[in-house]
Write a structure and sequence with these properties.
The complex is a heterotrimer of chains A (354), B (340) and C (276).
Chain A lengths: L1 H6 L9 H21 L7 H12 L8 H34 L12 H15 L8 H20 L1 E2 L2 E2 L1 H25 L3 H12 L11 H16 L1 H8 L2 H6 L4 H23 L5 H13 L3 H25 L8 H25 L3
Antiparallel strand pairs in A: 1-2
Helix pairs in contact in A: 2-3, 2-4, 2-14, 3-4, 4-9, 4-12, 4-13, 4-14, 5-6, 5-7, 5-8, 5-12, 6-7, 6-12, 9-12, 9-14, 13-14, 13-15, 14-15
Chain B lengths: L1 H14 L7 E7 L9 E5 L4 E4 L6 E3 L2 H9 L6 E5 L11 H6 L3 E3 L5 H5 L5 E4 L13 H6 L3 E4 L13 H4 L5 H13 L3 H18 L7 E5 L9 E3 L5 H8 L3 E2 L9 E3 L1 H7 L3 E6 L8 H10 L7 H4 L3 E5 H4 L6 H14 L2
Parallel strand pairs in B: 4-5, 4-7, 5-6, 7-8, 9-11, 9-13, 13-14
Antiparallel strand pairs in B: 1-2, 2-3, 10-12
Helix pairs in contact in B: 7-8, 8-14, 9-14
Chain C lengths: L2 E10 L2 E11 L4 E5 L6 H8 L7 E6 L2 E2 L5 H6 L1 E4 L11 H6 L14 H13 L15 H14 L4 E5 L7 H12 L4 E5 L3 H7 L2 E6 L2 E6 L1 H4 L2 H8 L1 E8 L2 E8 L10 H4 L2 H6 L3
Parallel strand pairs in C: 3-8, 3-9, 6-7, 7-8
Antiparallel strand pairs in C: 1-2, 1-4, 4-5, 9-10, 11-12
Helix pairs in contact in C: 4-5
The chains are: A mainly alpha (354), B alpha/beta (340), C alpha/beta (276).
Family (chain B): Belongs to the bacterial solute-binding protein 8 family.
Protein name (chain B): ABC transporter substrate-binding protein
Keywords (chain B): Signal
């Protein structure tokens, strides 16, 4: 692996940027189709393609069992994995920029652990005040409360201090994780325990068409907003002093970005549980490929994140078929080698700097 | 910008599918709304589930549900089952009948595998859907146009351990309710009533008065430095123990897999140890596990071990709602009263 | 651009770092700020590019109150070359210089033709055009300082603020930077350590000591042996070189007739005042 890392270019300058984006997007499109063809129930590739083509050209639902599996169970799940992966990677890239720390991700700010606490509270108390929506809403509320507490604790006279943000985020993340573990150990029912583990490790089972619109809209809008104003992100990376000198209202910019990250992470965690590592790894891979400029690296981050989680979910569904693995296990298994590769390659890159 | 974000926030819940609790409790004959001949039962959350006709293609997620169906003469309706392990403890003629059911997965099958059978009803003896990773949730059942029935437990199987008084289970109502509910849905109420009557009769036959020995329920071989896994009061296991004339040593906790401290065990001193075998987390299965527990130094000082009163039952008999609960009850009662 | 600093005081951590400084920099002139470490040079400059807000006093750019403008507006006329920042090494030279246009960007962050022309001009002026696609992290210290100067120039500033622009640079690169800056038609305020460079390039020199302005005027008038001796605690000899003053400095010795040990060179209270 190290040998491969040595040969990895620090920046694949040989591949022109537009070509890279086209190739990655094509790969994503192709992956969606292939992933829809993979699963515990074997359905011939031709039939899968036929079903997708039928629906994408406006055809209605049929009663065939393969139609049910491909169009209503697998395809929405594949799409959600791509959307969630894109959103988490995007959130990771932004957090890394805002706190100017390469190992930051939404989880470092206590977001996902807060979401877990919200969800687990609902699971263990059996509250169903808001019916079926109780759980995702509680997860979202948990994430929002967590980041709220972290932001208040880490700002001084309205100014966010990045280092303090990380310290407070990590501290509260541990606190929230402790609360979750406590409730896990206190709960009576094994099914509640299994669901709590879902919130800790994440998972995309149970996805249907109705799950998709909100995460897709949030990820789409957030990606749009961020891409349109990506230059400002570059200035933010230089630090408070420099971005102030460049005329950027650093404080306001940070609050705005963290709000966006909370919305992204909260929405995604609410439908997919706490999927780790995507937000940490993928932005680094993107920087390796196209450099640090957010205008180039954000689109690549989005597509790579989608690809990464899509294939992680395929692995979760198929490796132990007909059983299923928690997707968090897969993102760690796939993510750690990637992370080491990136570290290795970036280590070589930084050797250039005295 | 902010307005757009908040609109999204408000819209979030609207787009997520509604999914009710799992079906349960006593069948309620259709009075209104569901059309002529429709059967309405309550799910575990108390919501109505309506059946216009008897289901034709049933997937049982676990063997317990299949065992119940088979005893109601509904074998032909089962198109596939998951978790067939409980079949191993079943008896003739049911064992042979169960063997004809296609097995979808050794554990709880994932959504896609269930959907592949195109079921119109999915049944589980567990109290909720979607517990194991990838297994169908209620939203998935809605997607595949199937109804769901679950073996409801008091408190939905979700209650925290602090309130055992409200969730303590002292009889086999969940088992009987589950049978009646299936009977109602499949239009075989008579068979269901007969089965329940038979089971109740067997239950009455074992109920005995007299001294109630303190019984410690053990689910795995205790390891030094770790809590001992036991069953609390909100479980079928507790109900069977109570009916058999025993006193659960840890009836003050509710959970199915509660932790008991070894010190507390010594202090409360069980007169009987009841080993529940075949739990998936126990490395050693069956009689081997019972032998291990008998020789376990952590339990050596208890009255139960000293007097050799270590009995056992498979989780396939005594852990989840199933007609075989009575087999477990009869055996435990016999064991408890053999020496007295 | 004319800069008016009027009675400005800055407190950091309860300490008065800049106290009641008033300084006017006329349009198109080069003003050097000199003074020992901790005399408040950098702090005073930071108030001018809005990284710090003074506790009292006003700063005006061409007569307009700096803090009454939006951040981007204030930054449009002001270019800043800060003391070296260890960030942004992953960007290319072109990307970094483009950041100089941040204050000019519209809502959608698109570069206009004007923006592109300004960036190209800044790269040209600093001789960095051939390096445009190189990563900043891979450049030498002198090249990196030129990149940061180019970033400041890309904003087409009318006031250029330089905080120790010659730090860590060899003699040639020091001169390169200052020559380049002097040839620009902008107002310059630069904190400089070298009295020689200050006397050579600046039209006026402002001397700071312990946060206070002690002298301001043409180098020949201000950088006298007395003032230098007073402010820096050294023995200074001034001699003319081509019409500009030049300096020979040596430690001031407080123990006449004895070898000049460390303990003889600085008074304890001077040490203390240097501490911040």
């Amino acid at each position: 692996m190290i040998a491969i890392a040595r040969r990895l270019p620090v920046r694949a300058a040989a591949v022109p940027y537009p070509a890279l984006v086209v190739v990655l997007t094509a790969a994503l499109g192709l992956s969606v189709v292939i992933a829809t063809g993979l699963g515990p129930v074997g359905i011939p590739a031709g039939e899968v393609a036929g079903i997708l083509a039928h629906h994408l050209t406006g055809g209605g639902d049929s009663t065939a069992v393969s139609d049910l599996i491909v169009w209503r169970i697998r395809f929405p799940r594949v799409l959600l994995s791509a959307v969630a992966g894109a959103g988490l990677a995007l959130a990771g890239a932004i957090v890394q920029g805002v706190v100017r720390n390469p190992v930051a991700d939404p989880y470092l700010l206590g977001l996902s652990h807060g979401a877990s606490v919200g969800a687990v509270l609902v699971l263990t108390t059996g509250t169903t005040v808001l019916g079926a929506l109780t759980l995702p809403l509680a997860a979202f509320a948990g994430a929002s409360v967590a980041i709220g507490v972290v932001l208040v604790m880490s700002s001084l006279q309205g100014r966010l201090l990045p280092v303090r943000l990380i310290l407070v985020g990590v501290a509260f993340g541990h606190l929230f994780a402790g609360v979750t573990s406590f409730m896990l150990s206190r709960t009576d029912s094994s099914s509640a325990q299994q669901q709590i583990i879902f919130w800790l490790l994440g998972g995309l089972s149970g996805t249907n068409w109705a799950t998709l619109p909100i995460p897709s809209a949030v990820v789409g809008v957030a990606a749009g907003l961020l891409l349109l104003r990506a230059r400002r992100l570059n200035a933010l990376v230089l630090g408070e002093e420099a971005s102030a000198a460049l005329g950027l209202n650093t404080g306001r910019q940070r609050w705005y970005l963290l709000l966006l990250v909370t919305l992204l992470t909260g929405t995604i965690v609410a439908v997919s549980g706490g999927i780790g590592f995507v937000g940490l790894i993928v932005p680094h891979l993107a920087r390796m490929l196209v450099g640090a400029d957010h205008r180039r690296m954000l689109p690549v981050t989005v597509v790579l994140g989608a690809l990464f989680l899509l294939w992680a979910d395929v692995a979760a569904r198929t490796l132990t078929s007909p059983a299923e693995l928690p997707i968090g296990v897969l993102t760690a298994f796939l993510g750690v080698p990637c992370f080491l590769l990136v570290m290795r390659a970036r280590g070589l890159a930084t050797q250039e700097t005295p | 910008m902010m307005r757009r974000l908040s609109t999204l926030l408000i819209a979030l819940p609207l787009a997520l599918t509604a999914c009710g609790g799992a079906p349960s409790a006593t069948p309620v004959p259709a009075a209104t709304g569901a059309g002529a001949g429709a059967v309405v039962v309550k799910d575990c959350a108390g919501q109505d589930v309506s059946f216009a006709a008897a289901p034709e293609r049933v997937v049982t997620l676990d063997g317990y549900a299949a065992q119940t169906m088979v005893r109601l003469g509904l074998t032909a309706k089962i198109v596939g089952t998951g978790f067939p392990a409980p079949f191993t403890v079943d008896t003739s003629p049911y064992k042979e009948e169960l063997a004809t059911i296609p097995v979808l997965a050794e554990r709880i099958p994932v959504t896609e595998v269930v959907a592949g059978q195109r079921p119109d009803l999915v049944v589980t003896s567990f109290s909720t859907f979607g517990g194991p990773v990838g297994s169908p949730k209620e939203a998935d059942l809605a997607t595949m146009n199937a109804k769901g029935l679950a073996g409801c437990m008091p408190g939905g199987g979700m209650a925290m351990g602090e309130t055992p008084s409200t969730s303590a289970l002292t009889d086999l109502t969940p088992t009987y309710d589950f049978i009646r509910k299936l009977g109602a849905v499949f239009g075989v109420r008579d068979r269901a009533e007969k089965l329940v009557t038979d089971l109740r009769a067997r239950q009455s036959a074992v109920t005995s008065d007299g001294a109630r020995p303190r019984v410690m329920i053990v689910q795995d071989d205790p390891v030094a430095g770790q809590p001992i896994k036991t069953s609390g009061s909100a479980t079928i296991t507790h109900a069977i123990l109570t009916l058999a004339g025993g006193e659960n040593l840890f009836g003050d906790v509710g959970s199915m897999h509660a932790d008991a401290s070894p010190e507390e065990v010594v202090k409360r001193d069980p007169q009987v140890i009841w080993v529940i075998t075949d739990y998936s987390f126990a490395k050693i299965k069956g009689q081997e596990l019972v032998e291990k527990v008998r020789q376990n130094p952590l339990l050596a000082e208890t009255t139960a071990v000293k007097e050799g009163k270590v009995f056992s039952a498979s989780q396939y008999l005594v852990a989840f709602p199933s007609p075989l609960n009575l087999d477990g009850l009869e055996k435990l009662a016999a064991d408890l009263h053999a020496g007295s | 651009m004319r800069l008016d600093i009027d009675d400005v005081s800055v407190t950091l951590g309860g300490q008065d770092v800049v106290a009641e400084v008033s300084l006017t920099v006329s349009s198109g002139t080069f003003t050097a700020l000199v003074g020992p470490n901790g005399s408040g040079k950098s702090t005073l400059l930071r108030t001018v590019y809005r990284a710090l807000r003074p506790v009292s006093g006003t700063i005006r750019l061409d007569g307009r109150d700096l803090w009454s403008m939006p951040a981007a507006h204030a930054a449009r006329g002001v270019g800043v070359l800060m003391q070296e920042q260890h960030a942004g090494f992953e960007f290319t030279v072109a990307e970094t210089v483009a950041l100089g246009r941040t204050a000019h960007l519209g809502f959608f962050d698109r570069l206009t033709t004007t923006d592109r022309a300004a960036i190209a001009e800044a790269l040209d002026r600093t001789g960095l055009a051939p390096y445009a696609e190189r990563r900043v992290g891979g450049l030498s210290g002198g090249e990196r300082q030129r990149v940061l100067l180019a970033r400041a120039l890309a904003g087409r500033p009318r006031l250029l603020i330089l905080d120790e622009p010659t730090n860590h640079l060899d003699v040639r690169h020091q001169l390169d930077i200052l020559e380049l800056v002097r040839d620009l038609d902008v107002t310059v305020v630069a904190a400089l350590h070298s009295l020689d460079l200050a006397a050579t390039y600046a039209d006026t020199v402002a001397v700071l000591k312990e946060g206070r302005l002690v002298a301001h005027g043409p180098a020949a008038d201000v950088l006298t042996p007395t003032t230098i001796g007073e402010v820096f605690q050294v023995e200074a000899t001034v001699h003319g070189v081509g019409g500009r003053p030049g300096f020979v400095l040596k430690p001031r010795c407080l123990c006449p007739g004895r070898p000049c040990h460390w303990s003889c060179r600085t008074r304890p209270e001077a040490l203390l005042s240097d501490a911040h």
